[in-house]
């Protein structure tokens, strides 16, 4: 199979700056994980340098077998829920004086509540220890479609609820074989209908072989589900054993998607090659503070 050469517009900032090492040292001190590191995000250098990180709860091993993702999928590596994790996240957030905190998770289908209780405790600890003006964004799994668990999360009042659809419907069987697009859309729609003031968010990748018409159709489905923020970025396989990239999408096409998304009514559209779900997540504050 031909390996596509990365174009010049896919260069990202590297690790090594002062704030980067401060963040990494603090994470090691509190035994915490970030999706920035585990998912090999290309923006971790820039985000760490800006004092931003996306905490990943419930371990480093996922129960799903998505073919695009760098997160470990060895079921033998599943660990019991760390009850110290929520307080550690809150303490580190306070120590770093974070104003916008993103919490994501590996998918834990082995847990009866899909990890909901851990999300709730993280919110409680952050509200308890951090400054009142801190904003919390949760990036959740599909909870296996369990809407009662979703409603528990919504009622805990995060500022932003994010759930990524990742790709267009046609590619789900190859890219997200255990997931289901309609289930994900229902999660987003139910979150908004449970609390209309909640800011909802979703994101997906391009470059996996989707058509432009499919991208626009997916964006419309998200908007019909009352999603407020959408993120669109270039897929880059973590290794040769992962799902192959079909195409590197030109920045002009990303600009087109951004323009179309704004016309559809999204409050924020982040669309560029290096955009990832939590990149510039703090920009949601302009909606939170309305």
What would your notes on this structure say?
The protein has a single domain (8-288), classed as TIM Barrel (Alpha-Beta Barrel), CATH 3.20.20.70. Helix content is 36%, strand content 13%. The chain is built from eleven helices and eight strands. Strands 1-2-3-4-5-6-7-8 form an eight-stranded mixed β-sheet. It is globular, with a radius of gyration of 18 Å. The model has no long low-confidence stretch (mean pLDDT 88).
Number of E-type strands? 8
CATH architecture: Alpha-Beta Barrel
CATH superfamily: Aldolase class I
Structural class: alpha/beta
Radius of gyration: 18 Å
Task: State the shape.
Answer: globular
| Helix proportion | 25-40%
In the CATH scheme, the class would be Alpha Beta
Please give the domain count: 1
Q: Runs with pLDDT <50, length 5+?
A: none
Trace the largest sheet across and list its strands. Answer: 1-2-3-4-5-6-7-8
Number of helices: 11
Strand content: 5-15%
Terminal CA distance reads 50 Å
Whole-number mean pLDDT = 88
CATH-assigned fold name: TIM Barrel
- Seen as an oligomer or otherwise, the chain set is single chain
Largest sheet: 8 strands, mixed
SSE pattern, N- to C-terminal: HEHHEHEHEHEHHEHEHEH
Quick overview of this protein structure:
This protein is an alpha/beta fold. It has eleven helices and eight strands.
